[in-house]
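Researcher: Quick test of sequence recovery. Tokens follow.
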């Protein structure tokens, strides 16, 4: 079934997962008759509400609830690639790798089909019932789709492909994609072993310690909010080693260091630091989900 849309209407629905998170937009099919538009507009409004609800749930680390909301969106509009990309991201956080990869592949396929369909300058045959679309509108839509696909690549750590899509979308005028180019450059600078947790916090996948079945130690890096303007040069950040107690769903700080202009200014082991419950949406809370996936929070 074709997805209704209208020549004069290309809405860029922006939904932020959290402060510093990247915006998310949705795409429309411009080649179908105008008659079903009102019905599709209502469907897409509901689709967007489910996606926004999923972002709200993910913000407080309720990823299972986020998946349920995206499921509703996908059921409503199964030809939109954005829903599959978001659901795959949440499944990946919950360590459901196989299902996440399936969603990722589905999203890529839908994005590719839409990009090819609307690519300006292509000599395509259209159905007699199809409405001709403006080349400028099609160009903006392709930029939006490439930005969305770049986000999907980024969330699945395929940074080269993400950078290609962000660069193309940025060149076409998508400002959100322009800002994401710097995020990819920052990853290249710090190293791919540092996995994003929040907008400016990352954990080192190469330095995970498990001294006991219920204990996990993880190094976390926190950067200042200044964008990376070069691929080399001095760095400033705080690095902390956190210990997670998967039995009690608590954490504590055991070591910290401050790096300024590329050199360590202060390094200290924190003795006697007590355990505490992590707040939803913080790096320790997200680490609990990643490394203590079967452990439920105690009330």
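Model:
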């Amino acid at each position: 079934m074709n997805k209704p849309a209208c020549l004069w209407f290309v809405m860029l629905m922006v939904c932020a997962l959290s402060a510093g998170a990247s915006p998310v937009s949705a795409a429309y099919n411009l080649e179908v008759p105008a008659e079903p538009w009102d019905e599709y507009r209502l469907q897409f409004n509901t689709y967007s509400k489910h996606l926004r609800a999923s972002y709200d749930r993910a913000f407080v680390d309720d990823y299972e609830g986020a998946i349920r909301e995206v499921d509703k969106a996908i059921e409503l509009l199964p030809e939109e690639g954005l829903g599959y990309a978001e659901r795959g991201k949440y499944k990946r956080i919950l360590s459901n790798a196989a299902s996440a990869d399936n969603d990722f592949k589905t999203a890529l396929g839908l994005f590719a089909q839409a990009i090819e369909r609307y690519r300006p300058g292509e000599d395509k045959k259209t159905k007699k019932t199809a409405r001709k679309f403006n080349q400028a509108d099609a160009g903006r839509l392709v930029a939006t789709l490439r930005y969305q696909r770049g986000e999907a690549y980024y969330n699945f750590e395929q940074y080269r492909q993400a950078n290609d899509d962000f660069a193309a979308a940025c060149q076409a005028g998508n400002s959100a994609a322009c800002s994401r180019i710097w995020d990819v450059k920052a990853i290249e600078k710090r190293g791919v072993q540092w996995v994003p947790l929040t907008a400016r916090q990352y954990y080192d996948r190469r330095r995970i310690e498990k001294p006991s079945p219920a204990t996990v130690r993880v190094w976390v890096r926190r950067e200042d909010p200044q964008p990376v303007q070069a691929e080399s040069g001095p760095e400033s950040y705080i690095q902390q080693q956190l210990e997670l107690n998967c039995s009690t769903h608590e954490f504590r700080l055991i070591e910290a260091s401050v790096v300024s202009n590329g050199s360590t200014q202060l390094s200290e082991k924190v003795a006697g630091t007590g355990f505490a419950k992590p707040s939803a949406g913080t790096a320790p809370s997200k680490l609990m989900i990643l490394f203590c996936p079967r452990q439920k929070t105690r009330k």
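Helices lie at 37-59, 63-76, 81-93, 97-118, 135-155, 159-171, 175-190, 283-291.
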